[in-house]
Amino acid sequence: MPEQPAPPLPASGDPSPLPFSRVLVTGGAGFIGSALVWALNRRGVDRVVIVDRLGTDEKWRNLVPLAFEDYLEADDLMPRLTSGALGDFDCVLHMGACSATTERDATYLARNNFEFTKALAQWAVPRQVRFVYASSAATYGDGAAGMDDRAQDAASLQRLRPLNAYGYSKHLLDLWAARHGVLDRMVGCKFFNVFGPNEAHKGDMRSLVHKAFGQVEETGSVKLFRSHRPDYRDGEQTRDFLYVKDCVAMTLHLAAAPSASGLYNLGSGVANSWNELASALFAAMGREPRIEYVDMPLAIRDKYQYRTQADIGRLRAAGYTAPVTPLADAVRDYVTHYLVGDRRLGDEG
What we know:
Oligomer: single chain
Distance between the termini: 19 Å
CATH superfamily of the domain at 23-195 and 241-269 and 308-322: NAD(P)-binding Rossmann-like Domain
Order of helices and strands: EHEEHEHEHHEEHEEEHEEHEHHH
CATH class of the domain at 23-195 and 241-269 and 308-322: Alpha Beta
Strand content: 5-15%
Shape: globular
């Protein structure tokens, strides 16, 4: 490990005060949701109501360093919201969803990711409450129809072919909003491969950085999937990796920008290989790279994306000017200030 680590990276983006006095954050104990609460706190907003399902994992630990007004279990939200018992909000940041790309219960995904989001949007939009929700780059499928967020109409969105039920559940909401003429009255964030602190509870859905950190500590090596396509060498499949600090800065920028509406790609704009990500991890841990390639499970082989890269032109056109943290710097910050010591956002000291 570096003997004298640099201080943790600041939250990227505009540090100016936000135009919100009270915010509802669903999924607020989860990965991106808790990071949003952290970023809100850093910009002076602590009148936050968090909604989630804490369950039996340890995502409650993400809440410990954060300042917020109240916590509510997800099943209680809509009755209390529609009755007026929760009071007024300026903004809803809806991050609550099942994010497991391997989830096969499409009924559960439709109810949790689509119907719940639709009901919340139908409450917020007529009341002119700013509504920002988590879509996903998984809606693009294998990318054969492009990964272009300039396509905002239902006919264009209909051409996308998600590869799994999770991606389809997110796609359903995008399509519904476009077909019913409300997409231009809300913001949908198409998150690419987000990684960083506060993801420890996500199990198999954790980023490679989190998984591989444990692998390196235990065995000294990292396992990556072999390529099963001749046009990609092993480990050279690429992803658009986005550090969570950049992700939440982008999301809050869109939430605060009155002219921003519709779907936005939220990524780094760069396609990095898994080999590059693993090398950045070894460098951050002060170790020599040792990579082992293993066969990709048959269950996901025909649903695997070999390349993702966000075009963030629409985000830039919406006024987001902050530079995106380079991959190596983001991995170093994550490893040095969070994975070492098992810390959460807000524990920086």
